[in-house]
Amino acid sequence: LLPGKEYTVSGVLVNAKDGKEMKDSNGASITASTTFTPTTTSGSVDITFKFSSGILKGTSVVAFEDLKYNNIKVATHADISDKDQTVDFPEIHTTLVDTKTKEHISGQETTIELVDTVAYTNLNPDYEYTMTGTLMDKSTGKGLLDKDGKNVTASKTFKPDAASGTVEIVFTFDGSLLKGDTLVAFENLKYNDKSVATHNDINDVDQTVDIPELKTSFFDLEIGETEDFVRAAQNVTLVDRVYYTNIQPGLEYTVYGSIMVKETNEAFKDADGNAVIVSKTFTPSSATGYVDVEFVVDTTLVAGKTLVAFETLDYNGITLVIHANIDDEDQTVHVPDVHTTATDNDN
User: Fold this and answer.
1) Are 1 and 44 in contact (CB under 8 A)?
2) I need a surface site. Which of 44, 68, 96, 162 has the fewest CB within 10 A?
3) What is the DSSP annotation of 102-115?
4) Which residues of 66-91 are buried (b: 16+ CB within 10 A; e: fewer)?
């Protein structure tokens, strides 16, 4: 260049795939320019592009430049294959499942493991990245806290083999107190401790895991659900109506039911001394509903006693929820007992 003369260098960002100019959120080309007066024939000058990068997820952009003097183009650098003038914008998508069920559903367990498979594109295989995840409680929109009051997080540092691939991070936490909760994984991809991609969509079903909850109503089929007593008779049909919430529709579940005698805290047994246990397999069409489990029993065997229904919800042989509260009135019925004394009215 000629020292002391005024030049203008301008640039535009283009898509590395098709060479078309990149557009901002308003539909305008992403451009930048600066005017300068060199003091030597050789040197450098910076032009800065400013824009919202969210629109460029998964895209590689190339900067094309023109140098002008007196509004006359005197030099151009527009090489779509030049890596030095190329910047990659990573993109990530995720799938969160329970390590036991392999589905978007988990159980109320002391130790829950959720694996978050993060699919990435547009990374540089020469760089080392760190993927960090945080579990969110969908109902509150806040981070899920562990028993120590800390956010449940997971991370993994890795060097990709290619620009596109997957990496897994595993959340391990105590979920024994979770009932009816919906958990969503948020992810942040960092390079040199700088965030280069995030995926934080509270409504993304792929990065969501549900934990079911059960509530029940126990009643005599002939008397109805509104009463808490049953008939003392043979062949009485007792219905355990199990209301479920937050389960994955379309999957096959099994509810197992048993009856406890509250006074002895032991299982109710039939005349042959066998514990009364029944089950029902069902495939729900929605996340919320109920299923009836029916016991046909001789309640005269426990006349004067209190019966409590216990339930377990399983998926593929994996226990998701146990509902076994001996003091829960909703799953309790009473069996009447009658004793008489006959006397002469005169004496």
Assistant:
1) no
2) 44
3) SSSB----SSEEEE
4) bbbeeeeeeeeeeeeeeeebebbbbb
